[in-house]
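From the shared-data thread, chain only:
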Amino acid sequence: MDGRGYAGLRGARAALPRKRSPVPAGIGCTSLAQSGSPAHPRKSRVPDETSGLAKAGRGWSRRTRRLHAPPPRQALAGLCAEAVGIADGVLWVTRDHLRLRRQYGAPLSSLQALQHRMADMFVEVELARSVTLQALQVVSQGDSSSRRKGVLAAHIQTSKSGMYVCKNGVQLHGALGVTDEHAVAGYFRRMAVISRLFGGTERQLSRYRALM
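Structure, as tokens:
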């Protein structure tokens, strides 16, 4: 672009009207200082108890208390039953995998070390099943204290047994056990959630000790 083009642009720019946004009356340094805004440090206001921050803090305290409140007995009993079903499913899916998977010309189920591992998993499943059945019986027939202790003990034991079975099931499946498409991986994730609900095993143990 030559000099005449630049001159034409300057001329067009000069011809544009210049407007200023109007300033509302009464807005200035003096009015800001008199209104108690943060621009004047000596007159800044401190939020009181009815402010939004205080309300949010009280709401957080209520949610925290609700989180650490004792869980309903029926909810714990249902979680224990679900945990037993998950552990039982992992046990038999793992058994079928060991029967079908072959290594060095023989199925994995023929290895004595894996047979011992499967036996331990079976014992944990039956232990979780027994305490869950006992908890269900206590919930429907026992008194308040025995019902609470029964479901707490069942949740503690089923969480430990279920996590043991699921972890070993993932390990015995090898790389298949960590894929999202395999059933064992989904069972493991759900069991991890169940074991951490209502404060987890440590919180349930402290509640159980408080009832003794």
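DSSP finds eight helices and two strands in the chain.
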